[in-house]
TrEMBL record:
Keywords attached to this entry: Coiled coil, Secreted, Signal
Record's GO cellular component terms: extracellular region
Protein name: C1q domain-containing protein
Domain of life (superkingdom): Eukaryota
SMART domains associated with the record: C1Q
C1q domain mapped to chain residues: 68-213
Keyword Secreted: yes
Residues of the signal peptide: 1-17
Record has Transmembrane helix as a keyword: no
Taxonomic source organism: Mytilus coruscus (Sea mussel)
Localization: Secreted
Annotated Pfam families: C1q (PF00386)
Coiled coil region boundaries: 35-69
Length: 213
């Protein structure tokens, strides 16, 4: 056998070995296929989990809405002692609550805080006794969230020899945490806001949830 033939045989043998080493075995092929199946299954389960979580979140929101719609949110409170010559910007503290379902009205500070998003109704009735000052002016405002942000008002002006009464109402859409109170606005001369006396609640403040969002 010639030297050239021996070289060719050797080259062929080495080349065949290299080619065989580059071909994956049946075990390797099976292992790769299994891995791909597992990855596909993990992806599918992950997508199903995300979908299920989305449905759970939707159900939670629906339950919250149903719960909020059934909530009893209402208050009615009246002013205790008379307020004599209060200054403009003063919050009227209706410190004697008769109804406070949900405890969302604060009788210590006179502020109602909305517990849920929704539409609310508020009503104010205020009275002032006889006043000999003919230039007397006394305005009261239903206020939302910040001083001076008025939404409705009533006035007790120029009373002389008789009592005078006023009222104000508001229907407001509130977000959870919004605050509503009654604030004294324009004042001129001497004035008295009548409180609870002679077994009569002359000045009172109320509100309730009409419906939750």
């Amino acid at each position: 056998m010639s030297a050239i033939t021996l070289v060719l045989l050797a080259f062929t043998s080495v080349s065949s070995g290299l080619l065989l080493e580059g071909i994956p075995s049946q075990e390797e092929l099976h292992s790769d296929a299994t891995l791909q199946l597992l990855l596909s299954e993990v992806t599918r389960l992950s997508n199903e989990l995300k979908e299920a979580q989305g449905k759970i979140n939707t159900l939670d929101n629906q339950v919250d809405k149903l719960t909020n719609k059934d909530r009893d949110i209402a208050f009615f409170a009246y002013l205790g002692p008379d307020m004599v010559n209060p200054s403009s910007g003063t919050t009227i503290v209706f410190n004697e609550p008769m109804t406070n379902s949900g405890n969302d009205y604060d009788p210590q500070h006179g502020v109602f805080t909305a517990p849920v998003n929704g539409t609310y109704n508020f009503h104010l009735v205020a009275a002032s006794p006889e006043n000999s000052d003919p230039s007397h002016q006394f305005h009261l405002y239903i206020t939302k969230n910040k001083p001076g942000s008025y939404v409705s008002y009533g006035w007790l002006d120029r009373t002389t020899d008789h009592w005078v009464q006023t009222s104000a109402s508001a229907v407001l859409h509130l977000l959870q945490g919004d605050r509503v109170w009654v604030e004294i606005g324009k004042v001129l001369g001497s004035h008295t806001l009548a409180g609870h006396n002679d077994n009569r609640a002359h000045t009172c403040w109320s509100g309730f949830l009409i419906h939750a969002d």
